[in-house]
Each structure stands twice: as C-alpha cells, then as structure tokens.
Amino acid sequence: MALVNYERDGQVVTLTLNRPEKLNAFSDELVGVLGDALHRFDTDDEAQIAILCGNGRAFSSGADVQQRQLRSREEFLKLGGPQGRGTHSADLLTKAVNWKPVIAAAHGYVLGLSVGIVLECDLIVAEEGTQFQITETSRGLGAGKYWALMHYRGGGAFTMEAALTGRFFTAEEAHKANLINRVAPKGKYLEVARDLAEQVLKNPPLSVRSTVRMRRHYMDRLSREVMFMGAPERLYLSEDFQEAARAFAEKRKPAKFKGR
C-alpha cells in the first residue's frame, strides 16, 4: 500500500496521505515519501497545481510519537532533533524546481507537525469543524515555528493564543483569523479545493509560479530564523519533553512538569 497516493486529473494532481490506521501520523518514511511525491508533481510536465489531503478520519495527527519522539538521547544528539536524517518536514515545499502551487485540503484533525505542513501550503481549504492543534506546546517543544507561520499569514493576536495554550481551534476560528482561505461544507472540502485550483489554472502558469516562489522564500526565511533561534535550547533533551512523550504513548496524564 502506497503511503501517498498520486493521482492526476488533467492539470490537477491530488496527493493523498494514506496511513489511515495511524490517522496519517508522519513517520520518517511518510515524510520521505511525501517529499518524493511532491518532487514528482513539481517535475510532471502535465501538472500545474496539487491538492494535498488525507485518507480516513483526519488529515493528519502530526508526528508519529512512537518513532520520532521516543528516540534515545543518543539518537536525538546524532539527529539534532526528533526528525530522522533527511526527513525534516520544513523541507517539503522549499526544495522545489518549478514552484507550482499546492492547496491543502484538510478535514477531521490537523495536529502538531501537520499544522506546519498545512500552513506552508500556498492555499488552504478546511472542512467545517476541522480541529487544529499545536501539540508541540503540551509536549515540551517550542511552538515558535507555528507562531511564525501563523503570524506570516496575518493571524494577529490569535497566533500567540494558539501557540501558548496549545488548545484546539476550529476551521471557522482559523478562517476568522485569516489563517485559511476557505471553510468547506461537510464532505465538500475536496470539491472546494478543486474549484479553487480551477480558478488558479485560468492564469498563466509562469506568473503563478513566480508568485508562489516569492511567497515561499519569505515564509521559509521567517520560519527558519525562528528554528535557528530555538535550536540551542534543544528542548527535545529536556525532562519535560521526555515525560510528555512517554505519557502520550502510555495514554496517561503527564506528571507535573519541572521546567527542566
């Protein structure tokens, strides 16, 4: 079974995360396969725009905690964080050749790492009632990157609230805060994303790509500055992070956090 399904209909490619039994949680392998699928789209002469969605009950539950957040201290030190070598999700949309636009079409849940992937897409559609959450806050990791991406989209005061509380927020709240482009009726998120894609396709493709390239450059520069600032903290080595990850895996409440 392919971890990402690639389907082209005319000039529109649909990329479907296909790990539904894990709510499309991002393992190192899934990040790598999605990167390959995005490169295939980027270099597909017949494709001009892509829609990224998830199979099953959710777009994605975020990082695969069992694999990426329960590594040994030695692994964290070798890798420089929870991600595996060459599987940093921040690289997915910034290693393009042709800079074709990508629309995120989300439903169900968009949690943790997948919030970043959605925000990095050029346009965003979410089904009504979709639940977003920056889980890094409660897991002992910094939410600076997510704050930067939401701030870049014009999220205003809502940006800091979402990053500091780590609470769930809905597609409707995200739309009100200018974080997403469309809220789709139940069961219609792919249809709405396709309609948005068709509007983009009415324009000359090179002018569209020029705009995408410029936007991604500034978005990437901002988010990488934030990650560079946070890197020396190495929060993935903290006791609080380790306790939060174990508690999640063991389906229990974490012990009192110690601030170390």
Description:
The longest helix is centred in the last third of the chain and has 26 residues, at 205-230. The chain has one domain (4-189, 204-249): 2-enoyl-CoA Hydratase, Chain A, domain 1. The strands form two sheets. A six-stranded mixed β-sheet has the order 1-2-3-4-6-9, with helices on both faces. It has a three-stranded mixed β-sheet with strand order 5-7-8. With 260 residues, the chain is α/β, with parallel strands linked by helices. Helices cover 42% and strands 15% of the residues. The protein is globular and about 55 Å long. Pfam families: ECH_1.
SSE layout and pairing:
Elements: E1 4-9, E2 12-17, H1 28-42, E3 49-54, H2 65-69, H3 73-79, E4 102-106, E5 109-111, H4 113-120, E6 123-127, E7 131-133, H5 144-152, H6 157-165, E8 169-170, H7 171-176, E9 182-184, H8 189-201, H9 205-230, H10 239-249
Parallel strand pairs: 2-3, 3-4, 4-6, 5-7, 6-9
Antiparallel strand pairs: 1-2, 7-8
Helix pairs in contact: 4-5, 5-6, 5-9
Rg for CA atoms? 18 Å
Euclidean distance between termini CA atoms = 42 Å
CATH level 1 name? Alpha Beta
Mean pLDDT equals 92
CATH topology: 2-enoyl-CoA Hydratase, Chain A, domain 1
Helix-strand pattern, N to C?
EEHEHHEEHEEHHEHEHHH
Class of secondary structure makeup: alpha/beta
Number of domains: 1
Shape: globular
Family: Belongs to the enoyl-CoA hydratase/isomerase family.
Pfam family, one: ECH_1
Organism: Reyranella soli
Protein name: Enoyl-CoA hydratase
